[in-house]
Amino acid sequence: xxxxxxxxxxxITFISSYFFIAKTWWLPTGASSAAAGIDHHFNTTYILMGxxxxxxxxxxxxxxxxxxxRKSSRxxxxxxxxxxxxxxxxxxxxxxxxxxx
Length: 101
Description:
Layout: H1 2-21, H2 35-66, H3 83-99
Helix pairs in contact: 1-2
């Protein structure tokens, strides 16, 4: 089951990424002098978020494979999380969206 989940996650990721890379749909022609700046910001955001999306989905697929259920698996334990890691990814998201304007 872990291998099936890995394949499904990766197929959805790479097929959906293809449509963005190939620009099968994209922004219409700019109608104002500000359009170039807005399009640049849009493209930069798409590229950065695309990299993060693909990396996260590849890692998710690997974890689905690595931690799949097996007969020898032990029961999962609850974790309270990692506050430092949560602060770091929140600040990085804030920098990306607020800092790039």
